[in-house]
Each structure stands twice: as structure tokens, then as C-alpha cells.
Amino acid sequence: MSRIIDVRVPDMGNFKDVAVIDVLVKPGDTIEPETPLVTLETEKATMDVPSTVGGVVERVVVAKGGTVNAGDVVVAVRSDEEPQGAGKEPAASTGPVSEAPAPAVQARDGQAGGTSSEPQRPAPAAAPAVPAAERAAPAPRAEQPAQALFAPALELGFSRAHASPSVRKFARELGVDLGAVSGTGFKGRITHDDVKGFVKKTLTATGAGGGRGAPASPRGAGLPSIPAVDFSQFGPTEVKPLSRIQRISGARLQASWVNLPHVTQFDEADITELERTRAALKDQATAKGIKLTPLAFILRACVKALQEFPQFNASLDASGENLVLKKYMHLGFAADTPQGLLVPVVRDADRKDVYELARAAGELAEKARAGTLTLAQMQGGCFTISSLGGIGGTAFTPIINAPEVAILGVSRAALRPVHIDGSFVPRLILPLSLSYDHRVIDGALAVRFTTFLARTLADARGLLEAVP
Length: 468
Fold this sequence. Notes:
This protein has helices spanning 132-135, 155-160, 165-174, 192-207, 244-259, 272-287, 294-308, 354-370, 443-458, 460-463, and strands at residues 3-8, 18-23, 30-31, 36-42, 45-50, 55-60, 67-68, 73-79, 105-108, 262-270, 314-316, 323-325, 331-333, 335-337, 340-342, 345-346, 383-387, 406-410, 414-420, 423-437.
């Protein structure tokens, strides 16, 4: 007997109001299990929601341009099959990341048009219910500049905040981290007035110079604005909108640069032996389907350095008064893609040897270029590596990927004469650029980190040791 099965949006971590950028099916289409239904995009990743059953599409609930959250119904499918993955427990967040997590489904009996309830639809037109304490507050503006829509509000703060959907929307438009706002509503609920009060307090503190305890505005409030210029008065121009990834990345990079006191420590590593060893093992690794790049050795060296200096494997909490030391080690690396710069995360890097790191990084980089990275594969990073060596450069100042406290920049290695035992010999020297949050890490600790890292990179044999 056929029945109607609702296919829902899978768990997406802390992400809310995810944009629907494409609907891939329509009512009447015959589909198979794993058929992509819609394409979602949030932060720097896109993902397809696959069907868990085969059958005929009865209804399409979402629309292109709308938004959805975890658990929302995507389509209703008339099927005689049992949904795949029904009753299975979702994978733990710290375990291996699946390439396409199966969405939850809910089966219900009935005929076409005879369901007991309407499926949940994204972005209802009616305003959500607001507690009495908030009704007097003015409604948020209906229209905001496009830049404000991508303000870098911290998802962790939003996930823990006690606030209504309208307040969350208002906070996102202003770029306010709800995790830093104290609620005065019923049972500590955050109201519109609380958000506005927080913004006013931040603007006042920033304008007065502020102290360490004063929260900083993520959009650089209080700084002089850049004057608007009509460039067409000087000659022909063309207006080209920034991509979604550029808009999101730009706001987050600005927030990190404004809020974190960046300092960059430059150093060099002698990787002559490392490169000789890598070249000798390259064919052997290729036979196993592994591309043994320098990045794998750098990842392994960073693992050892983070184990030696755990303060780099940490983040400040929302109050800025406590350091959260992480007992796991997930390393991000910048990947250059046609869509823009993405940062996949190699999970549990401390449990992988060089070959496993090379395989994991290669698979993630390929998914990044293909635009198939899942949201989970870009979350949870502890420390980031930005390697531009394949392109060029001698040094640069990478911006910290907040809420991390440090990022390593790697430029192109070059042969240089080095004075050893009374004579000059050619050595392959790798430039290193370590940017760090000076609130957490001082200069002495930073140079100890880069010195240790350089010494570790010089010991190719040590990097190839088996992981305990």
C-alpha cells in the first residue's frame, strides 16, 4: 500500500535559515533513493538534500529563494518503499563526516490530498508569536542593505540564545552576536530592546576608546567611514556584484581583523630533506591512490607543534575572560576554488599519519573544487593553514580564522645558499608566516612555536613515524 512520506532537511549543525538556491524536482516526477531534491547554500558550502525513498513527488514544499531549517519538509513523496536510514541514529559530530547525511523522514498513511496536516513551509508570511514583553518594541526594518544581511553573527551564540525568531532576524541584520547579549524579558528572554541596547552600549564604548572588557562591534562601529565615490565620472565602469562567498567571507574577515589584535611572526624552515623524502615516496604513494603533497607534511608538523603548545589549540569564550583548551585537533586548510576561498577541515588530524593526512586533504580539496563540501566538513576547525606556495610569494599576513587564535601562512620554498660548516650549500627554505591573537599568545610563545615547527619540518624521518 502506498503512503505519503515527508523528506526533511537533515541536521546542519548550528546553521539556521539556510538559503534554497535551486529546486531540482517538481510534482509528478518519478524519483529514486538518493535523487537530489533541492540545493541549499549557507556560509561557504552548498549541499544537495537527497531523497531517502523512491516514488512519485506528490508535493514540493520549498521554493527557490526561500529558507529552511533542519527538520523542515522538502517534498512529499508517494512511495511503496521503506525510507532508507529510517530509525538510524545520526553520526556523532566528532566522528567521521559522511559525504551526504541522510535527512530524517516521517511516514504517514493517507491518500493524495488526504493528509492529516499540512507540511511545514519555509518563511511563513505571518509574523511569529512574540512575548508580551517584546510587543512594544518596534519591528525590525523590512529592508536592510545587502551587506548587513551577511553580518558575521556568531552561530554558536545564536544556538545558545533564548530569543524569538524576529529578534534573531533583527540581531543578524545588525551583526550582533546574541551570545553576548543579556536578556531582560520573561525568563531571561532576549528582546528587541536588549539588542538595541547592546548596540548602543557598543557604539558608546567604541567611540570612547573602550577597554578590554568592552565588546567590540563586529562591523567596526565608531571607525571613520569610507566616502562613497561615483567612479563613472572619471571614465567607463562596470558594476559586478560580489559572489555570495565573497560577501560572507568579507564580513567575517573584517570582523576578525577589527576584533582581534593581530600580530604576525615570520620564520623560515629548511625543508631540503623533507622534499627529498617526499620525492622518493611520491611514486609509492601514487600507487596507493594518494597524492603526497607538501601540505600533508605541514599538517603533520602542525599537529606536533600544537601538541607541544596547546595554547594555540584553543579559543576564547564569549566573555573573553576564559581560554577554552580543546582536547581534539581538527585542522583547516585554505582551498582555492572557482567559487572562492574555502576552508575544509581535516578532523582528528592528530590520529592520522602523513599518508592518511594526504588522503583526507586530497579528498576534501577535490570536494571543495567541485562545490560538494558538506557544512560539517567546514566546521570545528582548531587551527588553519593557508598555503600559497603553489602560486608564489615570499611572505604574507594571513587573517586569523576566528574564533581560532592563530593561522599559519606558507609561501613558496626557494633554494638559498646557507653557510654550514665553513661553506655555503644550497638548501630549500620555506617561508612561514604565523598570525596570532595577541590577547592569548605573546611574541615569545609565538616565536617558540615557529622555531619548534621549523625544527619539526626539518626532521622528515620524524614526520613519517607511525601515529600512536
